[in-house]
Amino acid sequence: MTRTDTPPAGAPAPGDTGLPDATGHYNKFGGRYVPEALVAALDQLDREFEAARADDAFWRELDGLRVNYAGRPTPLTPAEKFSRLCGNATVLLKREDLNHTGSHKINNVLGQALLARRMGKTRLIAETGAGQHGVATATAAALLGMECRVYMGLVDTRRQALNVARMQLLGAEVVAVESGSQTLKDAMNEAMREWVATVDDTHYLIGTVAGPHPFPKIVKHFQRVISSEIAEQCRQCYGRLPDAVVACVGGGSNAMGSFADFIDAPGVELYGMEAAGDGVETGRHASSITGGSVGVLHGMRTYVLQDEDGQTLESHSISAGLDYPGVGPEHAWLAATGRAKYEPVDDAEAMEAFKLLTRTEGIMPAIESAHALAGAIRLGRRWQRERPAWHPLIVVTVSGRGDKDVDTAVRYFGLTGQPDRCVGKVEVGGAA
Amino acid sequence: MSGFQTGFSSQAFQVAAAQGRTALVGYLPVGYPDVPRSLEALAALCGGPDDPGVDLVEVGLPYSDPMMDGPVIQAAGTLALERGVRTKDVFTAVEAVRAAGKPAVVMTYWNLVDRYGVKAFARDLAAAGGAGLITPDLIPDEAGDWLEASDEHGLDRIFLVAPSSSDERIVSTVAACRGWVYATAVMGVTGTRAESAPAAPALVARIRRLCPNALVGVGLGISNGRQAAEVAAFADAAIVGSAFLKPLLAVDGGDFARGLADLAAVRRDLAQGVRTAG
Question: Which of A6, A400, B56, B198 sits a CA distance of 20 to 30 A from B83?
């Protein structure tokens, strides 16, 4: 397989809904709530993206990187023992954890970095929360010989010191953001602010399907390879499309990539699992669709966690990658139309699923992805109750690997890092 | 024909022009250092008899995610929010400015207006005596509800143009404005700068060529009387924010009276600057 992007250049892709419209709206969601100073840059980005989209040479280069650098296509692993926990369902794991740098983030980063180079830009800037997108961006910058600066909330730099060091080893400059709540949303504000001033030579490489038009469209397009591969792999191995695709949703890039080709395939149910933290009812959560309301944040109209006045509320989740008080506008639209369903998964459910997958399959998922796995368990059991004779096929996207989360897991499960027992020590001496 | 409309806040520009000078627009956020004292600070911007103040006050309403604000304004806004400022307080602040004898416009981010209700916000702003609204993250393309509500309540709508704006966008944005147009002098966020921005005169010249009857305020980067005088040479108004906040932030938690006195000194220097231009 040399070409992982199935649609021919310029042709409408499967799942093409005709949205966003020319002004970047998914019905009432999306758009551009940005300073005028950014409009020219966003227009240029949209023009260049559309030109690249129709350019075979661009896709040949990107496909080459996907195959020979990132390691695509990623496997679709049947999870036989894990499936037994999911009613009558057969669960297939889309293994984005096996990508270079350990998550789906590289799909978007390689595409946007090539786009930036095509636009003649020599610098990349990015925001990052846990550091996964920052590491992926620093990786692409190293590969393509571009300068890189990553904005990260001061609180997050302390929580994720290892990823700060990884970015620095890759040659990126890491800037800690001390304004506001000093987390991901503030890192996005700061990156956007810098971009207003440096747009001539700099591309803002946004990490998810959020932000002002055309970012949600572009990131979806670079992530849709996940669903294109799922469709092909399912047809090859099972002769049909899956009955459901389940993915976790923070900003929503791995979920949008997993859903993209199936949006116009009504037989495939789409489930997005939001991080419910301590529980949506406690107010300490990151479930923007389930527990938020429609507003404007980071340049887009979407579901937002906000107070009565419209001030952004802090989100809470054990998973840093889902800890974001907004969600991509196309998810908002899919939720509003009912095409995709969004459900909350709290910290406890996610950590249980984290443990279960690790023990049953020997695959340690990112805690983000564990939310999707918990959703699959819930869905499989619900379908077993509703239709006991049915044996559905459920694809779960494992968006990343869990190595980065070992510290969190150690604390959560009360492990000590001490060995279970010792052997080999011989007592010598001591006789009278 | 640019389609530019004058409005209530244009009068501040016209009064200054009648005196042969550029107008001075001053920004301070409601709620900093707290709501009652922010009203005193806003009054201090207005000056008094024989003590020239700003010609138009820009009342900021703090937002948790202020994309266009530099570190000084964001720091004050964050503190104001921690100290409990609410959206409705902006109307009290507008009333205080009107009581001090100056016209007032509000500057804030769109989600706060959206959440309050665009129609309700326009109604309450007009009732407080406000002249209009500056919208740093709302471009005319997304402003359908606001165009309607501002027409209904006779409010000015001040959109931004930037050095990167195309000629086409300058024309369409100015046509959507009422009152005046806000020219962002530098590509970047608010904040004082040692040097004034080279892009500003070129941008204003472009607006004048494309839209000859538009009133143009220049902001982002003006910190002293000398820079105000430079801007006065080519723009209809000089807009100053961070420079007024710095003296207040310097005494945060301490001697507010001294902060007010220092603020008044900055305001006098700037008011002098726009009066000695050319």
Answer: B56
What structural domains and CATH numbers belong to chain B?
A: 10-273 (3.20.20.70)
A184, A327: one domain: no
Query: Which residues of A belong to the active site?
Result: 105, 127, 399
Taking the model in full, what pTM does it have? 0.95
In a domain, A56, yes or no: yes
- What is the DSSP secondary-structure string of A365-381? B-HHHHHHHHHHHHHHH
Q: Are residues A97 and A50 in the same domain?
A: no
> Are A279 and A346 in contact, with CB atoms under 8 Å apart?
yes
Q: What are phi and psi for residue A288, nearest 5 degrees?
A: -65, -35
pLDDT tens column, B57-92: 999 999 999 988 888 999 999 999 999 999 999 999
Q: Which of B65, B110, B169 sits opposite A312 (nearest CB)?
A: B65
In contact, B157 and B176? CB cutoff 8 Å:
yes
Structural domain boundaries, residue A234: 76-101+223-413
Closest chain B residue to A301 measured between Cα atoms?
B111
Closest CA to A335 of A274, A413, A276: A274
Question: A 233-292 residues with CB below 8 A of B?
Answer: none
Q: With contacts defined as CB-CB under 8 Å, which chain B residues touch A33?
A: 110-111, 137-139, 142
Beta-carbon-side half-sphere exposure of residue B11 (alpha carbons within 13 Å): 11
Distance from CA of B161 to the nearest CA of A (A): 6
Residue A427 in any domain: the answer is no
**Number of separate domains in chain A:** 2
> B114–A310: do the CB atoms touch at under 8 Å?
yes
What distance in Å separates the CA atoms of residue A85 and residue A111, rounded to the nearest whole number? 37
ipTM of the modeled complex: 0.95
CA angle B191, B195, B196 (to 5 degrees): 75
The residue in chain A having the minimum alpha-carbon distance to the alpha carbon of residue B159 is A36
Helix (H, G, I), strand (E, B) or coil at A36: helix
Structure tokens at A189: 């504000």
Residue A80's nearest CA partner among A269, A374, A357, A386 is A357
SS3 A417: coil
